[in-house]
User: What shape does this take?
Amino acid sequence: MRMNMYLRRNWHLYILLVLPLAYFFLFKYGPMYGVQIAFKDFNFFQGISGSKWIGFDAFKEVFQNQDFFDALRNTILLNFLDLLVSFPAPLILAIMIYELKTSWFKKMAQTVLYIPHFISWVIIGGIVLQVFGTQSGFINNVLSGFGIGEIPFLTDKKYWLITYLTVGVWQSAGWGTILYLAALTGINKELFEAAEVDGANRFKRILHISLPGLKTTIATLLIINLGNMISIGFDRPFIIGNVAVRDYSDVLSTFVYRIGMESGQITLATAVGLFQALVGLVFLLGANYASKKLADESIL
Amino acid sequence: MSERASNRAIDTANVIFVIITMLLCLAPFIHIIAISLSANRPIMSGEVSFYPIELTFEAYSKVFSDMSMIRSLGFTVLLTVLTTVLSMVMTIAVAYPLSKKELKGRKIFMLIIVITMFFTGGMIPEYILIRDFHLLDKMWALVLPGLISPFYMIILISFFNNIPKSLEEAADIDGSSHIGTLFRIILPLSLPVMATLSLFYAVGRWNGFQDALMYITNPELYPLQLKLYQMIQQNQVHDLMQMEGMTAATVLPESLKAASVVFSTLPILIVYPWLQRYFISGVMVGAVKG
Amino acid sequence: MERNRFAKMARLGVAVTLISTVFVTACSSNNASPNAEGGNAATKPSSLKVELFDRGNTPAGYTITNSYLTNLVKERFGKPSNIDVQFVPVPRSEEIQKLNVLMASGTEVPDIVFTYDSGTFNRYAEQGGLTELTELIDEYGPNLKKFLGEDTLAYGSYNGEQFAVPGRRLVLGKYASYVRQDWLDKLGLPAPQNTEQLYETLKAFKEKDPGSTGGKVIPFGMTIASAQYESLLWSFIEPMTQEQRYTLTQQLGSNDFPALLPGFKNALQYMNKLYNEGLISKDFGLDKDKKQLWEDVQSGRVGFYSEDAGELYFTQNNTYKNLQTNVAGAVMTPLDAFANSEGKFAKPTYAPNGLYVMIPKSSKHAVEAIKYLDWMASGTNLFDIQFGVEGENFTLVDGVPIVKPDAAQAAIDKIYNFGDFAVIVNGKFAGDDKKNTDAYIAQTPAEYQADMRKSVEISNTDPITPVRFDHPIAAEAKYGNGLADKFQEFIVKATMVKTEQFESTYAAMMKDYMASGGQAILDERTAAYKEMSSK
Assistant: This one.
């Protein structure tokens, strides 16, 4: 009886879910039998079902590979640094844009700040060389004008980390502001007006109104970022990285590219992918749980 | 220092900082434009920085006289609009029910969807799926597989959750159905985030080409970015050209690549300010009161 | 008002989704029918699908699958043989990924596929995915067989079975070195002949800066591409026994790598010395596509460098021309600067094969495929694909096709991707070896052809040819790509490290190299050599 009531009240909601769930089952779960490649000696011509089972051999091979652990360490290192630097950057920038008084300038600033997001990594790679190069790079040219010696931004491991982070912030911070700005516009204007009447200064207003208004968005993005702690995009480390700093720039995505795409060892690549997926899911659920306990924010 | 003076000082500092950041973001694009307007020699000798040297419009006249580029642009616009509309409708359809904490089975549905953020079947099974659906070499192969992004869905849910429950309850008392509440209360209050997600979907589709690399062989269905990617990648395989005995083959001049970059980036930069009004002015207050 | 319109829009959106989903399903179920309708002709033409690299350089007016050359093939091969030829574009930069996927799909793969990657060829052959071609070639490919010759054909065999038609490579020489002759003349220096003399020359360039670059001089232009350092490395390699050559060489990808050969350490030490004295491009480890090097050469900063023979003369980069425009009086001369301990200018050359052209086992058109390749090898077909139309694209001088420097753009566009059609050959085939060389040289502007000829000669002097076992080395297929990367890292780190840290860096890198597969390859090669010599 109660169930009946519930359904009569809510059947709309289930109808809405039908198409999206069908989509996930068809297009996402449909090909998911592919994960068994990790446990098979994959042969292109026998197909997945025709290839021989090899149990956990591929995982054993991966876990015996020193390069894998280096790549794993670097992935976590770079992601962690990004979390410290690239994660707060768009938040700060968004607040600064929001605080701008002139409307046309505000709009123009946004449009311009998004531009880096639209430039492909191959092109960025060329520009990075021109800006950060040791011999003829723009920055080093300026520095040498002041009599400061060359700084190996791209070939010294420590400096390279700084370059990597800088380029990351430059490329993504503007684009990252969008969500925060959308959330800021959702904050009731009256709150700001009331604060002004109360004589709260700028920073107090940001601290007590803007930031709390962004809490959910920040938590959501943070949880998802934590879920992606051991997966990393291919382009940035690959393009900005180079052989001189491979100790830091070889990450799981470039590692998988090398063994999977270039050497055709699909089985190993799939095994690494499966490992990343499992850890990622655990991290996400853990972060979600922690966030729920600590800040009463959760995404699931 | 008085309150007002300190406020003005902060404003000025803020404006200066934003201007510097803007310049940093603009510089590379200006560099690309300068290259697109320069002759080959100064480009190859590394002389071009922020203004064209030996000015020429040849690259642009080539891009605009190339019908396949124009057609590709048209196709990409169509593809982007279609993908964005379908993706938004589907994302709303899944996010709204899942934003209801009291929905039975919500956790299961969420888990089913979140798992797909991490586990994928891989390139080969996905290709075979598209083939079995007879979607190879069809526009739908570029639309359907990426229809819903779980990430954007989660964002939308969190924005839906942020809408004061009192508004929904008021509607409930009025006897409105869920669908009615969605259209009358939730969506109008969510315009900023919907504009944002539309932009994300649109830009994702506009910039994406990896799926087309795999699923499309008909040149008429090449998205613009695929053409661009192939042009730009020419550099990367250049070392192979010698090995391939292709030394005398046609190599695209850098200026043409740069002009194509400009050609394919401008449309989405132009569309942007139009979308902007949805997340610059506060929609919320007016909508609630009205 | 506003709200109402929005609700309408949104409902419309839902409707569109529903309708389009239905539409898609309808579409897909209808899809099988159109194929059945076309077969009313008297004799049904058979079909042939051929892979074609798409480099994104298709000129306006053509598409990759509808150009002068696709039509030429359809007209001259397809029609007379009643074969419907279709071209399947594959993006050049994603070639191997796409080929893997196509192969795995079984149904979508073209009847003729190809790759330069020997690892990919070996993998397909080993996994049993390719058609054995010996009988097919004997029966349907007499011209093809004659054109390629036994030597080249041998490169397409895997454990004794012919699983590929290897393209025939015409230009085997790889590298030459170049020096700023005007700088040498200004300083009254001779052309350097070996690494010791080269060191003195580079030092003089650095100290005296004959080009007045204001301290920006780069005595030795370097990148991380093999063309820039291979000549140098191999000149340090000591004379070897045949056993050493077979067991210590490491073939990664299609090139032989000298990491374990005697003398390799000395080569790195030399590079380390040059680098620490500021004689080598500082950022060479970043310069993957040679862009920076070319820029430096063209702006007159580079005194000496090694490169693919003749690269600077070709018009696509216009390196030399631009240098002479930028720096009046600049003269770049080709030379052989790396004599080894025996006084020979030993340097690597290419193996005589190019692409591996393969026919998947799933193909039902293997006969047509061989017929197509045979057609290409017969008559003037190959010539017409590669050189275009006489009078428009080229003129014949003493039987040698000379590309017209003033050819109309429309004519050039016709054959813009000739190399990707002519899969059975690597380089332009003009008739015989001498004509090929002449035609190759004639591709450069007239004023540079003497230097071009010299460059080609240098690249063929004292060649080191790749060593080959009669079967592939499994460890090389497995570790090849990773090790090739490690090798680059080896060179960059050993070169850039402070001189006092060279020994420890070298030892650490060598250990890493061996652990990452170098040892496995060495063991397998040693075993293979034993087996080979006991036969």
